[in-house]
Amino acid sequence: MNYRDNIDLNKLPKHIAIIMDGNGRWAKQKGFLRAAGHEEGTTAVRDVVEGCAELGVENLTLYAFSTENWNRPKLEVDTLMRLLVSSLKKEIKTLADNDIKLNSIGNISSLPKKAKRELLDVIEKTASNTRMTLTLALSYGSREEITNCVKQIANKVKSGELSEDTVDESVINEHLYTRNLPDVDLLIRTSGEQRISNFLLWQIAYAELYFTKILWPDYRRENLFEAIYNYQNRERRFGKTSEQLS
Ligand code: FPP
Predict the structure, then answer these.
(1) Helices 221-232 and 34-55, interaxial angle, to 10°?
(2) List 2, 6, 69, 121, catalytic entry
(3) Is the pLDDT of residue 246 over 80?
(4) Does residue 19 lie within any of the structural domains?
(5) Between 237 and 204, residue with greater pLDDT
(6) In DSSP terms, which residues pair with 188 in a beta bridge?
(7) Which atom of ligand 1 is nearest to the CA of 69?
(8) Which atom, in ligand 1's list, is nearest to the CA of 42?
(9) Residue 168 placed within a domain
(10) Is the pTM here over 0.90, yes or no?
């Protein structure tokens, strides 16, 4: 089936988030070092970003590096940071050509200086692009994000800037890294694992979850189109009944 032609462009998910998993297994299957899997993963990143832009998806968020990933062997962490810097340098043109704004979520102050500098530079250079927002989750952990959010709100209540009675879901949204993004509509995880791994726990409250066995380095826009087609053929009830929706 040609999924691309069967996608309803008026009902696209406003926000797609992806847990890019399986780089290590892809490399192992081919007898390569893990780094080769991450390297090939950047080809998948580019294709999926272009696929989203081609359709008109407004927000794409990629889980590129979790707070827990700092515990991997130093060599692997260094490889991922090096790939981040080289991809940012290389892909700034793709972002410009496709009118894509780069954004990041996570504790970027813990990134190596060079990676942080390059990231902030590309964020600044693409700030006025409007077609799509590409968010990289870097040194990101959802529990850390929520903990920060609670601390900020508690401080504001203590100083009188906010009153306890006005703290509602929108106030919480405004204190998360994702403050400028809509809720996630579709969450995709590759490689056959079926877990959330501390990714956007608050923001996926009503997301449709889609799991595929494809390893991230093999993932291409056609696979994404299939996921979007699948999403469009689900009934999203947001707690209501089928009858209420129709
Ligand atoms: C998970 O595979 C993937 C990662 C931890 C990193 C994702 C990074 C990239 C795709 C490359 C760089 C990204 C950008 C945005 C430039 P894994 O290593 O956990 O795979 P495994 O579970 O098979 O071991």
Answers:
(1) 50
(2) 69
(3) no
(4) yes
(5) 204
(6) 18, 210
(7) 5
(8) 11
(9) no
(10) yes
Atom of ligand 1 nearest to the CA of 136: 15
Chain-centroid distance, C-alpha 234:
22
User: Does residue 188 carry a pLDDT above 90?
Assistant: yes
Query: What's 221's domain CATH number?
Result: 3.40.1180.10
Residue 105 lies in a domain: yes
CA distance 203 to 92: 28
Which of 71, 60, 237, 192 is CA-nearest to residue 132? 60
pLDDT of 193 over the 80 cut: yes
- 83 CB-near residues (< 8 Å, 6+ apart): 38, 39, 42
Whether 87 maps to a domain, the answer reads yes
The number of domains in the chain is: 1
Q: What does the buried/exposed string (b/e) look like for 179-212 if buried means 16 or more CB atoms within 10 Å of the residue's CB?
A: eebebbbbbbbbbeeeebebbbebbbeebbebbb
Q: Is 69 a catalytic residue?
A: yes
Q: Find out whether the beta carbon of 25 lies less than 6 Å from any atom of ligand 1.
A: yes
User: pLDDT tens across 114-165, in order?
Assistant: 999 999 999 999 999 999 999 999 999 999 999 999 999 999 999 999 999 9
The pair of structure tokens assigned to 90 is: 């290389």
Active site residue 103: no
How much is the pLDDT for 237? 85
Pocket flag, ligand 1, residue 139 (CB < 6 Å)? no
**pLDDT band with cut points at 50, 70 and 90 for residue 243:** confident
Residue numbers of the domain that contains 208? 11-141+186-233
Does the C-beta of 21 come closer than 6 Å to ligand 1? yes
Distance (Å, whole) CA 13 – CA 16: 6
| Collapsed DSSP state (helix, strand, coil) of residue 228 | helix
- The reply to whether ligand 1 has any atom less than 6 angstroms from the CB of 81 is no
